[in-house]
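MOLECULE: protein
FOLLOWS: sequence and fold
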Amino acid sequence: MTTLVIGSSGHLGRAVITLLRQAGRPAIGLDTRPAATTDIVGSITDSATVALAMQGATGVIHTATLHKPHVATHSRQDFVDTNITGTLTLLNAATRAGVGAFVFTSTTSAFGRALTPGAGDPAAWITEAVADRPKNIYGATKTGAEALCDLAAHRDGLPIVILRCARFFPEPDDSAAARASFSDANLKANEFLHRRLDLEDAARAHIDALGAAPALGFGRYILSAPTPLQPEDAAALRHDPATVIEARVPGTKALWSRLGWSLPDDMSRVYDSAAAQAALGWQPRYDFATISAQAARGECIGSQLARDIGALGYHDAGFDDLPDGAPYPTEPT
């Protein structure tokens, strides 16, 4: 019962490998970069390397990708090569090897323009029923890879679960306006209301999905911390989210004031992860209530696993010409 983890040197891959090994479950890591969690160094576009790694694997968790931080530093062809061609190589090899379950890490960026309502419109309540509207090459190639997963599940019989993850990165926000308005901890704590996921919960969801995939056959789910907000809050979230938050989570205003934090003055989207919880048997440990309690005790928010893995960065080299606090170059908007 060996799990092959693709992208085992990255944030999520390291977390998945760590949890599997802590549970005594055999796991093999494949990545282009060496790490203590990586056993085979190679590319997912290399069919020979992939075939070798796939030998003996009963399940695959595919976390490897070019991410949004790479949009300004990598070509569109690079994204196609890694996110689409690499995924196809893995799917073909998994099918030939008779792998019993395949989990693909996708992104809420696949929703793209659907995440940004017009002026005066209510906040977008994002469920699996919302249509994709990718707005960059990252979202476009992830939806393309999802289509390949759908094909492999329905034409080749490979049980597959796709997980569209909300943000779980530890780096500062890429938005200069957000960095200027909130401290990093304040911003991330606010996001646990509607668009953030702890790394440990993300990893546990992938392991749960691996177990659920054979019975599901195919599934596509949003991963985000459970929200205390409700769909009927959508209109008010655009102009007075603080009042909504206080009504749903009494005491938040006082706690945030004591911490010197601020609540958002606009909330344009809310990710609803109820379907993932129901279908996968996934029980997230870090929601807004947990994060608030940690903050009230003066603790760092989030899981110890997320802190242990820390910030890995997305680029091999640093950047000396970025605006103050920017974690990486961003695509012009």
